[in-house]
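Standup notes
- DV: blocked on the single-chain target, sequence here:
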Amino acid sequence: MMVFDQTEFFLLALILFPIYLWRHRQQPVRQLIFRAVFFTYLAGVVSQTLFPINLVWEWGLAGKDNHIELTLFQYFVWRDAILNVLLTLPFGLLYPFVTRHSWPRTLMFGLLIPVVIEVSQLILLYTTFDYSRVVDVSDVLFNFIGLVIGYLIYRMLVGKNRR
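- DV (later): unblocked, structure below
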């Protein structure tokens, strides 16, 4: 039984975002546009990394261990590496536009976001019976690389001294 999928998640995001805009209506239009793009991006990341969630009412956790990779580059696939870099590249690029930031704070989020995604996938792996995601420590590394590349692109776009 499918509990929650991408479509329902995006509909929820579309309902919540106008409420957010209404609460921040005094901000400049440029800032609201950046936040809208960032909000849409975050909704897409959550949608693609955690959903759909299927519940199948069978007992036992047989076969769950093959969905966890704790060794770096054990099953390296270029396509997955590139997709993981591309997943967080927009975060590194957009985050500085929507909030006050610093390089250390951006790096902290660069490590925190992929870890939260992987831990969420691990929790869903063990709390649902039919979860098809793979928890892989290499994803954290490639997500972090994507964030750093995105932040470097931001620095090139706005210049070194202007934030």
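- Follow-up: The CA atoms of residues 25 and 32 lie 8 Å apart.
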